[in-house]
């Protein structure tokens, strides 16, 4: 029998704790663009935390060599095989190859949870500046190109230098996570939290991804001015 509160309505269920995140330790992670600095760094940190990781590259031999150098059981494969093997796929390819890479992997990425961490940036003598794709952001472009995948956005503001530095035990930063389905963003938040020092923070839907991607241009300016590897922390959360 359903009980009612004093207003005569059935009581609402208790709100879900936003920090009650799923266990992702058993999921396999693929990194497209895993031989580049950002992808390689993310692969290293996740594998070091105990995640099963496959590095992807257009060249399988190059991916296998990079994986062997990382250790921690990381495997290497061409991008298509990397996508097929993985439960979660991180897209860390250069912006100028973003659309072409995803178009070629639409079938392999169908049904997968895809995390886009690509930052559309341009560079001139004044420094880095944000580009705005026709779709609105790299993440929205990924969602348009991968209609059968579950696209999220995260891991934009991480220093590749810190990620790859083996002497650093913890990386003090938050990871802003965007997506359309809360269950998917919860998984990405949990994955970010596998890396010591990191915390995944829900930051809205994909329509807000442009601001997150663009902020990297500002962080590049901060890092150049202060000779740092700055990240982000969300306060009072």
From TrEMBL:
SUPFAM superfamilies per record: NAD(P)-binding Rossmann-fold domains
Domain Pyrroline-5-carboxylate reductase catalytic N-terminal: from-to ranges: 29-120
Ranges where the record places region Disordered: 1-23
UniProt keyword Oxidoreductase, yes or no: yes
Protein name: NADPH-dependent F420 reductase
GO molecular function: coenzyme F420 binding; cupric reductase (NADH) activity; ferric-chelate reductase (NADPH) activity; NADP binding; oxidoreductase activity, acting on NAD(P)H
Gene Ontology CC, one term: plasma membrane
Pfam families to which the protein is assigned, alphabetical: F420_oxidored
UniProt xrefs under InterPro entries: NAD(P)-bd_dom_sf (IPR036291), NpdG (IPR010185), P5C_Rdtase_cat_N (IPR028939), STEAP_metalloreductase (IPR051267)
Organism, scientific name: Streptomyces parvus
Keywords: Oxidoreductase
GO annotation (BP), single: copper ion import
């Amino acid at each position: 029998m359903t009980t009612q509160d004093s207003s005569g309505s059935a009581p609402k269920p208790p709100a879900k704790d936003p920090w009650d995140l799923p266990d992702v330790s058993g999921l396999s992670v693929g990194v497209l663009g895993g031989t580049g600095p950002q992808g390689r760094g993310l692969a290293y940190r996740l594998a070091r935390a105990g995640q099963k990781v496959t590095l992807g590259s257009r060249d399988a031999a190059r991916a296998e060599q990079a994986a062997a150098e990382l250790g921690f059981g990381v495997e290497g494969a061409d991008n298509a095989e990397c996508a097929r093997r993985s439960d979660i796929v991180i897209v860390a390819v250069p912006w100028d190859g973003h659309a072409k890479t995803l178009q070629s992997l639409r079938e392999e990425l169908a049904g997968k949870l895809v995390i886009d961490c690509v930052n559309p940036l341009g560079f001139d003598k004044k420094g880095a500046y944000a580009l705005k794709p026709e779709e609105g952001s790299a993440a929205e472009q990924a969602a348009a190109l991968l209609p059968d995948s579950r696209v999220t956005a995260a891991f934009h503001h991480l220093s590749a230098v810190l990620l790859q530095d083996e002497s650093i035990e913890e990386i003090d930063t938050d990871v802003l996570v965007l997506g359309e389905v809360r269950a998917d963003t919860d998984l990405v938040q949990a994955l970010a939290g596998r890396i010591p020092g990191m915390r995944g923070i829900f930051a809205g839907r994909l329509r807000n991804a442009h601001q997150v991607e663009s902020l990297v241009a500002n962080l590049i300016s901060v890092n150049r001015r202060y000779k740092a590897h700055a990240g982000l922390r969300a306060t009072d959360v």
